Amino acid sequence: MWKYFAPLVIFALLILMFIKGLDPERNVNALPSPFLGNPAPQFELPSLTDPSKTVSNADFGSGMTLVNVWATWCVGCRQEHDFLLQLAESDAVRLIGLNWRDNEGEALRWLQELGDPYVDSAYDGDGRTGINWGVYGAPETFLIDPDGIVLYKHLGPLNWALWQKHFVPHLEAAGKTQ
Amino acid sequence: MRFLLSILSSSLLVTTAYAVDNEEPLSDPALQARYEEIIDEVRCLKCQNTTIKDSNAFLAADLRREIRHMLEDGLSDEQIFDFLVERYGDFALYKPRASGKTLILWIGPALFLLGGAFVLVNIVRRRMALPIGDDSSDEG
Questions:
Q1: Residues in Cβ contact with B39 at an 8 Å cutoff, skipping those fewer than 6 apart
Q2: How far is B140 from chain A (nearest CA, A)?
Q3: Are A40 and A150 in contact (CB under 8 A)?
């Protein structure tokens, strides 16, 4: 009997595999971050806008924080910039930038010309903090809770649809437990 | 003619030698040897099917620099691999560690082999049970 059902079962398994594998929203380059559910790595870097100041984990504040890895050479960062400006206005999260492997002057000009969505941006010129955070391709965005735990990491440019789908559930869950 | 052919065909075996890593070798040859072994085991996360030894992505160069620093600081190979896995996950290593999550990678091929052997043995047994000279199919 199983001889007749086995191909059907295998076919069904293949279909499931294709549905998962060919999902247009699936980013094949996205890797699970080992930091999910764990404390965000410690860092301390000069501020991009005022090098006499530093940006560190102490700047995360008492609410939800978004750490956004960006650079002027990064096309995806340009794509998500308008979204980030709108998000900054909505006050849903505290937005900290990590300017990764960039040129300081060009980064400052980018913020002047396009607007600065960030509370502050840390300047990571040699990329060491990026490595400590497991960054491998900007833009990357980490959602961090008030205890400094990484709740979610997104690879690639953000928009409102992705925000609603991947970040809002975490924000709502946190709102309920508080 | 044969000589010409052998030269032509051997030219097919030639590949370009890449020297992506143009940093000064480490002062200690033993460290340099370990360094070269390690960077051949680490995946470039930016261009996921090359090692950081073969990639010229800046992330690969940064990772090579970090590994050189760690070797000079006297870290063991194991500690260096730990550093990478803690930040980038098991995928960073070409030879993933045996753990709950990577178990399927290690035992998967054996499972496929066992499954194939099971099917083969079944078919052979059924055919052996057929009377000799009966060529009809064993499909029931």
A1: B21, B51, B52, B53, B63, B64, B67
A2: 9
A3: yes
Tell me, what's the ipTM?
0.84
Give residue limits of the domains in chain B: 2-97, 98-140
Task: Say yes or no for a CB contact (<8 Å) between B59 and A33.
Answer: no
CB contact under 8 A, B45 and A136: yes
Phi-psi region of A145 (alpha: psi -120 to 50; beta: other; left: phi over 0): beta
Please list every residue in chain A whose beta carbon sits closer than 8 Å to the beta carbon of residue B140: 3
Q: How many residues does chain A have?
A: 178
List the CATH code of the domain at B2-97. Answer: 1.10.8.640
Three-state secondary structure of A131-169: HHCCCCCCCEEEEECCCCEEEEEEECCCCHHHHHHHHHH
Give the CATH number of domain A53-177: 3.40.30.10
Nearest to A131 among B48, B62, B91 (CB): B62
pLDDT digit string (tens) for A109-139? 999 999 999 999 999 999 999 999 999 988 9
Dihedrals φ, ψ of A169, to 5°?
Answer: -55, -40
Which one, of A91, A111, A86, A99, lies nearest residue A55 by Cα?
A: A99
